[in-house]
Amino acid sequence: MKKMLLMGYSGAGKTSMHSVIFANFPAKDTQKIGYTVERQEHKFKFMGTLTLNLWDCGGQDTFMEQYFLVQKETIFRGV
Fold first, then answer.
1. Is the dihedral of CA 15, 16, 19, 20 positive or negative?
2. pLDDT tens digits, residue range 24-56?
3. CA neighbor of 43 nearest in space, from 72, 23, 71, 63
4. Which CATH number fits domain 2-76: 3.40.250.10, 3.90.550.10, 3.40.50.300, 3.90.1180.10?
5. Widest CA span of the chain, in angstroms?
6. In the structure, what pLDDT confidence band is assigned to residue 22 with cuts at 50, 70 and 90?
7. How many CB atoms lie within 10 A of CB 19?
8. In the chain, where are the structural domains located?
9. C-alpha to C-alpha distances, 39 to 26, 33, 56, 60, nearest whole angstrom
């Protein structure tokens, strides 16, 4: 299993990118997607036996501080 983080500022399009690439969401409808609270984990199987563990991390300042100060072992382990 491979782990990938989507991290960045709030409103940067992390969840939209995840939705379009991995969930076949129409790009024109991404305006309807809300913001991510803390983080969401999604697992995708592709290329036969490969599993991608995608973590979509909320970009609000409060969450970003927690990722780097308190949760860095959990967030960055296995990336």
1. negative
2. 899 999 888 888 989 999 998 888 888 999 999
3. 23
4. 3.40.50.300
5. 38
6. confident
7. 19
8. 2-76
9. 22, 15, 5, 11
